[in-house]
Each structure stands twice: as C-alpha cells, then as structure tokens.
C-alpha cells in the first residue's frame, strides 16, 4: 500500500463526510461551504496521488482500478447532491453517471480477461472539467452571482460534452475487450 493508493482511499472516505455536510442546511450555508471545501480537498488528492505514483514510479494495478473508482464516487455523489439541491437536472446527472457505469463495466470485463484499462487522456480531462464545474455549481449555490451562474452553466455543459466524448473514446479504444467473437 503506497502513498498514492492511501491518498486514493482517503478520497473515498471523504465522500460520505462530504455528503453529511451537503445535507446540513443552515441560513448561512455553513454546510455547503464545508462540503465544497471537502470536495476541493478530495479533488486535490486526485491530482496528488497521480503525481506521487508517477514521480515515484509506484503505479500499480490496484491504483489504476481504484483511482477512477474514487473519482466516480466523488463526482457522482456531488452530482446527485446538486440534483437534490435543485442546481442541476436529473437527466444531466444521469447522462454523466451512465457514462461512468458504462466505463466501469468495460473495465470490469477487461479485468476479467486479465487486462487493466487505465484512465485515458480524455478521461483525465473529463475529470478535471467535471470537478471545476461541480465546484462552480456549489459556489453558485453559496454566492448568488450572475457571472458565476453563467460560468457554472457553461462549465456544466462542457463537462457533459467531454464526458460523452471520453466515454466514446474508451469504447472505441477498447473495442476488442467487448468483441462478440470472443
């Protein structure tokens, strides 16, 4: 269990803490502020664990599997929370979560055949854009600001488009994994 994998596990443990604070409803938005800070810290661990794994040459199959899973848990919990808070539509959330399930299914099939599908460049870009959009959406809930609202809407739609593109990219690049001829 190297440091990078420990950071990934910490990110997973931050998800329920994030959700607890999202559910705290106060007049001064303390719960949302703390939840947003926890989300940002968790997002930073995503960048940090990848950097540490690469710089120390400690990339593991466990990390290749767990890191994207931790990202999916964090992003999905935030998106569902934003639906509950009335910030985004359920269909929007479901398109993103459906892509996450589909790619996870692809990874599961590959793993059953002894292959590990690591995060692609599109997948990494997707995660960064999703995180920026989610942070903007939470800040938009905390601070009523017209510019921030327009930025939030724009970034959410960019995240949606990149999410779809990255999902297609995974399936195209790994089409041999799901070949019917096997």
Automatic annotation (TrEMBL):
Enzyme Commission number(s) from the entry: 2.7.8.5
Domain of life: Bacteria
GO biological process: phosphatidylglycerol biosynthetic process
Compartment annotation: Cell membrane
Topology versus the membrane: Multi-pass membrane protein
Database matches in Gene3D superfamilies: 1.20.120.1760
The protein's name in its UniProt record: CDP-diacylglycerol--glycerol-3-phosphate 3-phosphatidyltransferase
Source species: Clostridium grantii DSM 8605
């Amino acid at each position: 269990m190297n440091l990078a994998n420990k950071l990934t596990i910490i990110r997973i443990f931050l998800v329920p803490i994030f959700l607890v604070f999202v559910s705290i409803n106060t007049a001064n938005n303390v719960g949302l502020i703390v939840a947003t800070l926890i989300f940002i810290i968790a997002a930073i661990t995503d960048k940090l664990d990848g950097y540490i794994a690469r710089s120390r040459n400690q990339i593991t199959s466990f990390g290749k599997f767990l890191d994207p899973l931790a990202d999916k848990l964090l992003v999905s919990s935030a998106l569902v929370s934003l639906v509950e808070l009335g910030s985004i539509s359920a269909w929007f959330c479901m398109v993103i979560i459906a892509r996450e399930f589909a790619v996870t299914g692809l990874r599961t099939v590959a793993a059953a055949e002894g292959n590990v599908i690591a995060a692609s460049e599109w997948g990494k870009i997707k995660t960064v854009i999703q995180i920026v959009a989610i942070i903007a959406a939470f800040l938009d809930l905390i601070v009523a600001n017209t510019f921030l609202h327009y930025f939030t809407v724009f970034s959410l739609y960019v995240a949606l488009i990149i999410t779809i593109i990255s999902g297609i990219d995974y399936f195209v690049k790994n089409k041999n994994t799901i070949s019917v001829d096997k």
